[in-house]
Amino acid sequence: MGIGKRTRLNRLFSHPSGRLCSVAVDHFIGYGQGLPVGLRQICRTLEAIVAGRPDAVTMHKGIAASAWEPHAGKVPLIIQGIIARPDDSALELIAEPFDAFLCVVLISSSIRNSIEDSNAQTFCLGADAFAVAAFVRGATEATYLRIVAECVRKASHFDLPVIVHIYPRDFTDSPKIVHEPEQIAWAVRCGLECGADVIKTPYCGDVKAFSEIVSDCPVPLVAAGGPKAEKIETALQMVYEVVQSGALGATIGRNIWGFPQITKAVRVFKTVIHEGLTPEEAMQKEGLL
User: Which residues of 173-182 are buried (b: 16+ CB within 10 A; e: fewer)?
Assistant: First the structure.
């Protein structure tokens, strides 16, 4: 691993616990016309998130270019490259690793020519990592994995870490994300085979089973924050179990920006992930009980 990639990964996993507590606001494609308030009022949401000092924030390049400037350098930035839905009604790469990279004065012609989107309008956002979502199982599984592998190859030019957000699906009734341990293990293996530096995947709901998945994965594995919980305690309990499994943290979306007190939500998830406190202990410490 190059020193540039190691430096960026160390920024993401900089807490003494060695774990990551990050926030994602890259969900717009899943909502269509029904954007929740937390995503609709994105500038206010980002301000509240950054006030809680998460370890990183993941977003698409358009939000980074238009709304991230007040927070640049305060919290590590991760650029999401893909828009996709489990039913494949969306499956497009809308950013390249070069978009996320810090612009330099001189770029060799060989590298410039290897980047498809290297024209004058390219956003160079100074991100610490590039994320790419992928759904496995089903007819488009190989398409997603090809996209992930291509992003890994292109990001290697810049020592830019790639984080794959990978989810297994079931098509029995209608396409949906599944959480069975065997399916999660398969998704993790797919991300690993494509060369991802960090793998984010759903928690399977069982500490022992997830612990086995973590132990079989030689790169950092973090959990997805999951569907919107009715109570924040439910989401905190899931993250607590993720920590107990030995995984290196979680990336949380709607269970942070969908909570009225966003800054406190960031802090209480950090407390569970970094200090290993139970949900009740963390909520008491952060003044939510």
Answer: eebebbbeee
Token look-up 């899931």 returns 238
User: 3-state class of 23 per DSSP?
Assistant: strand
pTM value is 0.91
Cα angle 126, 156, 243; round to 5: 75
Position with higher pLDDT, 33 vs 42: 42
Mean pLDDT of 11-32: 94
Q: How is residue 67 written in tokens?
A: 């709304």
Measure the CA dihedral 204/288/58/169, to 10°. 20
Range with the poorest average pLDDT among 95-99, 129-133, 203-207, 239-243:
95-99
The answer to whether 71 touches 45, Cβ cutoff 8 Å, is no
- Give domain limits for the chain: 3-285
CA 196/CA 132 separation, integer angstroms? 9
Q: Which residues contact 138 (CB under 8 A, 6 or more apart)?
A: 88, 169, 171, 175
* Strand extents, DSSP E, the chain: 20-24, 56-60, 77-80, 82-84, 91-93, 129-136, 162-170, 176-177, 198-201, 221-224, 249-252
Domain spanning 3-285: CATH 3.10.350.10: no
Query: Which two structure tokens, joined as six digits, stand for 242?
Result: 């993720």
**Tokens, residue 93:** 């790469």
Q: Is residue 54 within 8 Å of residue 12, measured between CB atoms?
A: no
CA angle 155, 39, 118 (to 5 degrees): 25
